[in-house]
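BUG: 3D viewer hangs when loading the predicted structure for this chain

Environment: internal workstation, default settings.
Expected: structure renders.
Actual: progress bar stalls at 90%.

Input used:
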Amino acid sequence: MSSTITKPPQKKAAVVVTVSESPPSPSEWDQIRTAMKPEFQFLACNWVEPWGEHLRAEEGWEKPFNYFIVHDQDGHAVAAVPFAQQTKAKVRFRSLAGLYVPLRGLPISQPAIAAAVECLARHLTENHHGAGLRLAPIPTNDPALGPLI
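Structure tokens produced before the viewer hung:
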């Protein structure tokens, strides 16, 4: 499964979001991580892959999970946000992947937060799967949380 949305250029350069079941490459993770606040850089790595291998149906998680990978106009990765389907009390949500704080967050490079979350929000609105979006539990100081909400 894959889809692509392009944000038309305005004051800033266009960004493109791709939905993929494949994780970002190591170089894409590096591009994102080096532009993140230091206290959140650990989110931009392949920790989510082992977590995804152990999604538990009895906890409401469904495989596969997807990455929302955002690239800037030069093709550099600026965000890779993992989501999975989850059912709680018979209600389906798209949930931010990961266990709990601090292993749940929005791996988005600092300079690209505004453009990336705008593109992600538009994609999530136009392609919703379930009743809503579940982000919690997530650190309240995640710099991308406020702009996404």
